[in-house]
User: Which sequence fits this backbone?
């Protein structure tokens, strides 16, 4: 299931698996709406591996901090910026180096006004089938996600949560992005998440001049994402024991639903030493461009992202683009301006072309990263490019992996 080279990194490095939760609470009464922001920082699962420390696996602690502040909706931007100005990213980096629980709490408190700390009560070791022993980290992560989301949605009764692993830097408009797109999640049942992440968000594959640009995607990106309690009510009874991110991408869970993702990522991982990120980080993640501008999403009309508007306009725009040979695009031999299209008809052509341009070439449950209706959008040599299946596309083929 998992790539062996990735598991190798897992067993030779000190592991960090910390997840941070920012929460948005949405409550509406007659003519007033209030947002409650919060931050739920959770566990530090710190394992030191057998190769490093004489067969010892130290599961240090699970620690959750939950930080929240009240403010009126119309003042959200102010609060969001004031949170950012305190340099959250820097603090989480510090946080990673601190083992003392109280010190950790105070680091986070210095960034946020109102903090609630919640600790994972289950510090026990976890049962893993012998054959998957080296993937134990994934089992712990899934257990922790399940527990933490139960707390957030069922105990604290939040309507909406933003999940962030704490090895992520966030963009200046991170909260603004989630606030601005929040209404889409409730208005459009064909959406099930908002994500801050573009899997193909490297500098040379995005339009750096379009930080406002957002897309729909059938590929669940994670890495800074927002979900609602309704979704959690649906997923929690069957939450898996491990590999939750691949599980959530299966058709049985996804049910044809999509996420919103930005052209320019609003998160960037510095987690070279995460449970799964070692080689993947070296090869790919470290090149993802983090947006640095403030886009006023809450003041923009984002209705175009609703399925009823988006699909028709997007598919039209894509399939009217001129078809070109990928070799010409690569060699910069295209004269007409405007968007272009690179058709693919097989799994192998997709992979070949994706590799040539430095796009992620993998599929999960048949869906290519960032794909929407099979279409993968990127920016190359100053123009918009679409990798497209046939225009009569009728669904993903799960055997494409
Ligand atoms: C927003 O918050 C700031 C700082 O607390 C305050 O000075 C300002 O009046 C608020 N604006 C609105 C519209 O509530
Ligand atoms: C936050 O800290 C980082 C790392 O030191 C620094 O590069 C960045 O400029 C800081 N950002 C703000 C808004 O202070
Ligand atoms: C902190 O959050 C709690 C829970 O939402 C709330 O009851 C309390 O009034 C808040 N305190 C401050 C100082 O904002
Ligand atoms: C998803 O969409 C495909 C193609 O449009 C359809 O055949 C399938 O039944 C849908 N699956 C679910 C679970 O809605
Ligand atoms: C917002 O965008 C939608 C879809 O593009 C459009 O139909 C609507 O008129 C726009 N609303 C405003 C206030 O501009």
Assistant:
């Amino acid at each position: 299931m998992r790539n062996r080279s990735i598991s190798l990194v897992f067993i030779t490095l000190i592991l960090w698996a910390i997840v941070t939760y920012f929460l948005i609470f949405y409550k509406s009464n007659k003519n007033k709406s209030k947002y409650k922001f919060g931050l739920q920082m959770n566990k530090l699962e710190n394992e030191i591996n057998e190769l490093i420390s004489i067969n010892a696996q130290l599961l240090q602690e699970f620690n959750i901090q939950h930080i929240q502040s009240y403010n009126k909706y119309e003042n959200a931007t102010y609060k969001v910026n004031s949170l950012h100005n305190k340099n959250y990213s820097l603090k989480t980096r510090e946080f990673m180096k601190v083992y003392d629980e109280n010190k950790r709490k105070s680091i986070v408190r210095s960034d946020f006004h109102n903090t609630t700390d919640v600790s994972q009560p289950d510090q026990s070791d976890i049962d893993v089938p012998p054959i998957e022993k080296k993937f134990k980290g994934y089992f712990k992560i899934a257990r922790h996600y399940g527990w933490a989301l139960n707390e957030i949605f069922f105990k604290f009764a939040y309507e909406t949560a933003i999940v962030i692993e704490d090895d992520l830097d966030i963009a200046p408009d991170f909260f603004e992005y989630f606030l601005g797109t929040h209404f889409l999640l409730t208005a459009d049942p064909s959406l099930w998440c908002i994500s801050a992440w573009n899997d193909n968000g490297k500098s040379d594959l995005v339009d750096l001049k379009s930080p406002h640009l957002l897309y729909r995607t059938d590929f669940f990106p994670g890495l800074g994402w927002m979900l609602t309690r309704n979704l959690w009510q649906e997923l929690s009874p069957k939450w898996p024991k491990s590999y939750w991110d691949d599980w959530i991408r299966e058709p049985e869970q996804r049910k044809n639903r999509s996420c919103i993702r930005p052209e320019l990522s609003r998160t960037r991982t510095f987690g070279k030493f995460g449970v799964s990120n070692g080689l993947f980080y070296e090869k790919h993640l470290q090149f993802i461009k983090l947006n640095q501008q403030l886009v006023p999403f809450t003041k923009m009309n984002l209705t175009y992202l609703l399925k009823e508007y988006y699909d028709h306009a997007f598919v039209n725009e894509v399939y009217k683009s001129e078809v070109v040979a990928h070799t010409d695009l690569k060699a910069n031999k295209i004269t007409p301006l405007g968007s272009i299209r690179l058709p693919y008809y097989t799994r192998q052509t997709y992979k070949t072309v994706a590799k040539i341009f430095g796009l992620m070439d993998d599929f999960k449950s048949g869906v290519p990263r960032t794909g929407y209706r099979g279409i993968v959008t990127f920016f190359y040599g100053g123009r918009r490019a679409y990798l497209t299946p046939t225009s009569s596309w009728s669904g993903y083929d799960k055997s494409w992996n």
Observations:
- Residues 136-155 form the longest helix (20 residues).
- The longest strand covers residues 33-47.
